[in-house]
Amino acid sequence: MINLKLSTLSAGRKVSTVIVADGKFPEHKIPLKALADAEIVVCCDGATTKVDSYGITPTAVVGDLDSLSDSLKMKYSDRLFHEPDQNSNDLTKAIMWCLARNYTDITILGATGLREDHTLGNIGLLSKYARLGVNVKMLTDTGYFLPLLSSSTLESFKGQQVSIFSPSNKAIITTINLRYPIENRSLEEYWMGTLNESLGDSFGISFENESLIIFMTYQ
């Protein structure tokens, strides 16, 4: 079993951190590699069962702990962080735990795939986390979500499927090097920016004063 300890980490550098939420545990090799390579693994409450079964000992277990079995509470008693605040979900509690320790390079796993209300809520929080200073991405079994706070050029590959979501629907967006160009217009409905396609090894998105969430498929 892989045991991740804070004491093994060197100071003064970015620490690869994975938060595992209590959704569908990943099966694709890319999120599983991210989990295996992580220096810090933070479990959201009930996700501890899945991570423990996978053979990884989490660095921390964060949340209201209502989904954690008594046996796992005992096993990981030295790394439980009880956060009972009902005005924040377990994923945000885990993010705040990381920020308090200056872990800002964060990959989120297990945030989708089961209950759709949890999925939407978790994806919708990405922009908030980015505004808090987190370099965050959310990996699924088909691709990954990224929040954008400003105009960006993103690495890609020809044929990559790209979807653009505008949570506020107020951003005026222009794209470069996508099969279906968006030119100086807003995306008033979530479906309007979906199922686009990259034409090369990068594409650009220009917008101002709002945030976007991008979904990109794996190669």
Report the sheet with the most strands, covering strand number, pairing sense and barrel closure: 10 strands, mixed
Q: What is the H level of CATH, i.e. the homologous superfamily of the largest domain?
A: Thiamin pyrophosphokinase, catalytic domain
The total domain count is 2
Number of helices: 6
Report strand %.
Answer: 25-35%
Choose one word for the global shape: elongated
- SSE series: EEHEHEEHEHEHHEEEEEEEE
CATH architecture type of the largest domain: 3-Layer(aba) Sandwich
Q: Under the CATH scheme, which class of the largest domain?
A: Alpha Beta
User: How confident overall, as mean pLDDT?
Assistant: 93
Count of beta strands: 15
Question: What gyration radius follows from the Cα positions, in whole Å?
Answer: 18 Å
- Which spans of ≥5 residues are poorly predicted at pLDDT below 50? 1-12
The N- to C-terminal Cα distance equals 30 Å
Structural category: alpha/beta
Can you tell me the CATH topology of the largest domain? Answer: Rossmann fold
* Strand arrangement in the largest pleated sheet: 6-5-3-2-7-8-9-15-11-13
Indicate the percent of residues in helices.
10-25%
